Amino acid sequence: MQENMQEFITLAHHLADEAGVIIKQYYRQPFEVESKSDESPVTIADKTVEQRLRAIVEAKRQEDGIIGEEYGTKESKNQYTWVFDPIDGTKSFVVGRPTFGTLIALCENGVPILGIIDQPILGERWIGVKDMPTLFGAGAQARYAPVTSRPCSNLSSARLCSTSPHWIKDQWQALRDSSDFLIWGGDCYSYGLITLGGLDAVIETGLSTYDYIAMPPIINGAGGHMCDWNGKPLDINSDGMVLALGDIALKDQILDILK
Q1: Helices 44-60 and 5-26: angle between axes, nearest 10 degrees
Q2: C-alpha closest to that of 105 among 134, 77, 80, 84
Q3: Number of compact structural domains in the chain
Q4: Which tens digit of pLDDT belongs to each residue from 183-195?
Q5: Same structural domain for residues 139 and 231?
Q6: Are the CB atoms for 152 and 180 separated by under 8 Å?
């Protein structure tokens, strides 16, 4: 794996660059919004980005597997699988709010070893690689530098985030009352804010593989921790109940409420 890692990093950045070019063409422009079978929205930008990313991987890494939100699964013929969410936060993209992002992950035997969050409108990108510091870059000529989550060992001082009270309807009141505050929304951008010290935890349910699998290398590489609601590490087959932490000291305090 190690001998390929720089190749993987270079390819992942290329994929994010290509996605950003497409997304910028459609951002705050008129386009049709379709509804999928689960009533979630999808746009031409979602579809075009994923088509482009799949084509690049299939040309450069023919035996690698691919999982994407819009076009399903191509089985791996080796131990590697790429996972794409072309636009995580399609509703935010549709209304022109720049908290969405492209998520790119690489898994080895089902375990994430590389992850990217790319916000092309703000020009911000996080890249996490297993056993390496998470890097963050901003601006047209991004210079990537390590980022570190903030120490926060007491839940009463923690800043929490989740998509909606609908998804944590049995826990949100206790989480809000036990923490400094709890905010809603933010899409994949919220995970990036953990690495910058703005948030201390993101709590989610109902996620698909492509929603969460890019995050563990990013959060872990910034000094944080990710797990499911049973405290187990995340992999490609996790159940979509996710806890991301800036400080592992919060783990048991939050899991006690979630359980």
Answers
A1: 150
A2: 84
A3: 2
A4: 999 999 999 999 9
A5: no
A6: no
